[in-house]
Amino acid sequence: MGLKLWTALIVAVVLVVTVSAAAADVCYGANTKLYSWCQGYAKAGYSCVGDFCAVDKCIASCDQCSHKYENNVVDANTGKCCDSISRTGECVNPKSGAPTQDIETYGYLGSIGGLIVEGPVPYKNSQPVFPNPISAPSGWKANYPPSNSSATCPPIPRKGYLSKLNPALVPPMNFFDASKGEIPSHLCFLSCNISEIESGGPDPCAAGSYIDPKQNIYAPMQCYYGGPGWLSDPSIGVCGFNCTSRYANGTYCPPKDHTNCLEVCDSTKF
Question: Could you tell me what percent of the chain has a pLDDT over 90?
Fold first, then answer.
């Protein structure tokens, strides 16, 4: 199964104006640089200044796109949540707006919204892909950080499960650069060389797998391929974490009904 058009593949958390009941003195804040899977803060109604946005009610996917601070107020002058606003108009004890989860750059997102690429293409020595069998990955996902070019993509984290990756084998690249502008996305990914895997070499992405039995997380990272012509260099793949096609009740979806199913990327649901 080949890849669909890129515009149909990207599934991101887009903040739309859907509001939950507001609680007294609550603030939802975000350092948007740390929420690469979210967009549209100002349009949804957040007060934004630079990279910081805040709002006094839950809007859309507030649980995935912001940090909830109880007994805090919005400072429209800074876009941050604060304990209070002083008499001189200063934000008292401004909050960082960092995600409550420890999300690694290029790492596993689980149930958090992010980019999902559907339709991985099998290659020699690759892992099975949908629909052979239907339980195999039908797509992949990871926390792709933004950058204007491959040269400025963030490095692989030096701590955590991704630190086991060899930067020489999975160098960061920018989708826009890697496709010579055919993919209109200035996000970075960890690249992998499928020709080396086809020649019998190990999958260089596998070292970044996220295994945590205590949290019931088994998320293997592997080198996915979009097929010839998807990226400019036909040997380049993308390191990612698997998504499977399922019905709402959790059962696997057959190819004939694939459009009526969901892409499930949370390994605790597998």
Answer: 65
